[in-house]
From TrEMBL:
Record bears the keyword Membrane: yes
Transmembrane segments: 6-24, 29-49, 55-85, 113-133, 148-167
UniProt entry keywords in alphabetical sequence: Membrane, Transmembrane, Transmembrane helix
Official protein name in the record: Rod shape-determining protein MreD
Organism listed in the record: Algoriphagus machipongonensis
Keyword Transmembrane tagged: yes
Amino acid sequence: MNFRNLISFIFLFLILGLVQILFLKNLALFGVAFCFIYLIGILILPLQIQTVPLLLISFFVGLMVDVFYDTMGLHAAAVTFLAFLRPHWLKFLKPNGGYDDTSNPTIQEMGTGWFLSYSLPLVFGFCLVFFFADQWGTGGFLSVINKSLFSSIFTVVLAIIVQLLFFKRRRGI
């Protein structure tokens, strides 16, 4: 990763974090679907990033959101869990020829079907950890599953819309 890409990822994390904190903090569709748009930053980090830096970046991004949400580490724990699962899930989805070393897991580079199969289970795992920790002992199992399912669908749909609207398209040869 060169310096230009590093600066662009830092800028992306700042923008996504600000959007999450300022606009999406109180957004809940029908009281069950919450949006965690800042997860796009973790999901589209380069494929060649090592596990330890990925875990540290995820933890600090989650901690940044926790400071403004006053959730005492829920986001940090859930995003770190997502970052822990990400390399294993990428190995599971690995094509026969392997991944290109310079590619990022975005819609523009991998396609919409691959991005859905990549992001939806990871975001669902994030939501499960988040809502289980959030409703520890107070909510029912079905309530956690319901919120996790609809929040992950809402987050992934919004992530696809954001990528289609704001990310650069790949140029053909």
